User: What shape does this take?
Amino acid sequence: MDAIILQILNGLDKGSAYALIALGLTLIFGTLGVVNFAHGALFMIGAFCAVTLQRILTLSHVVIDDTKKDFLGNPLKVEVPYIYDWFGQETGAAIIDWAVPLAIIFAIPVMIIIGMVMERGLIKHFYKRPHADQILVTFGLAIVLQEIIKAYYGANPIPAPAPEAFKGSYDFGALLGFDANTIIYPYWRLVYFAFAAVVIAAVFAFLQFTTFGMVVRAGMADRETVGLLGIDIDKRFTMMFGLAAAVAGLAGVMYTPINAPNYHMGMDFLVISFVVVVVGGMGSLPGAVLAGFVLGILESFASMREVIEFLPGINQVVIYLAAIIILLTRPRGLLGRKGVMED
Assistant: This one.
């Protein structure tokens, strides 16, 4: 039982990342009808927003520290972050320690601007082009963004640690009545799952209960009719592209303590995220979220040592096998609209 609970927790952790990225992909496909292969790059850029803020906060200058001496008795030169001068050492150290959560504030406007620039500058020219053209141009854009990050930040992963308060692990075994230390799970992974749940709920609430969201949902159902009512639906869809970029970016920001950011992390998640979107149902937001968590849990169980010993390599292909089975039996996906991909 403890192994099952642990794998469910691992699956929820993976599923959170899949669901957030797939949610943004579905927003773009549902509103604009664009297959955006650059969405994984937005996840990567979000992660590097956290890295960038961490570097900004740790910018420092050299001072002479009379309290520290070298072996000859001379005072040592030490680097002191500017933020210590502005806020004091204790507060400055706390701000640096919380760099990753603070990067959320930094990443939201950055990602919205990047998303809107992408949509207005490039993607809008491919609305009426075949999906194959959309895939080619957005995949090319993803490669360009990836190489820019590689040129500026280097090819090696860059650690971005979680705040000190969230380092360590939580004893789920004691909470559930098992022996102590039987189910140990990192605090930050629990934080990531809770954060993903909040973001997903916020997106659904925005679309369901705000006037802007209602217009967008109407535009997704019948774009021409909404346009005839005098509403600039194109402008709202551009803003939705920015929102989708922000969701992917926030997923990347909070994922940095789990997996150190590197220039190819967007590609690592991209293909799986598209599988999640298709399995959930093209254009279905609830389907994307459901499929993200279901496939994350399935992948987690397939990664168990006992399963791998019985079926070597199954953890590498289980998501794709599940997608094949689901699409053969239900071509529109788990929660896809009737008639979508069923012709």
In short: DSSP finds 15 helices and four strands in the chain. Residues 2-57+99-329 form a domain with the ABC transporter involved in vitamin B12 uptake, BtuC fold (CATH 1.10.3470). The mean pLDDT is 86. The two ends are 43 Å apart (CA to CA).
